[in-house]
Specification:
Elements lengths: L1 E8 L3 H12 L2 E8 L2 E8 L2 E8 L4 H9 L2 E9 L2 H10 L10 E2 L5 E5 L9 E5 L1
Parallel strand pairs: 1-4, 5-8
Antiparallel strand pairs: 1-5, 2-3, 3-4, 6-7, 7-8
Length: about 130
């Protein structure tokens, strides 16, 4: 596994993308509307910043309402998401997703509950 991206909840993904492009010299390499969100990926070395803007009520809208803008999750890339989930089960980590599901950019994803991962929502993403 390796670090893939940090998911960042924001009220305006395009505005934040423009700031990060200008401020940090990053490049927006992918944008889509997915699962009630606008998602913008900015390339940052070998990893990404994933900007998550709610377009309707849902997980990110509720996160913003409760916590404000900021880091929502950290994602680890794997070429074997089923194996990664099995390893998490073996370590008694609570799975939010028992099975992989479709994620942004056409990848399969699965989330681990933050109560068992040091307070961090962790996403597995299969490439």
């Amino acid at each position: 596994m390796h670090f893939d991206h940090a998911g960042i909840a924001t009220e305006d993904a395009r505005e934040l993308a423009t700031l990060y492009e200008d401020l940090f010299g990053l490049e927006a390499v992918h944008e889509e509307e997915f699962d009630g969100m606008r998602v913008v990926f900015l390339e940052c070395g070998e990893s990404y910043l994933e900007l998550l803007e709610p377009l309707e009520d849902g997980t990110i809208a509720r996160y913003l309402e409760s916590n404000g803008a900021g880091i929502h999750h950290l994602a680890l890339a794997t070429d074997d998401i089923e194996g990664a989930l099995e390893r998490a089960r073996e370590h008694d980590v609570t799975l939010i997703d028992e099975e992989p599901r479709p994620g942004a950019w056409g990848h399969e994803v699965a989330f681990l509950h933050p109560k068992d991962t040091g307070g961090i929502l962790v996403e597995f993403v299969e490439h």
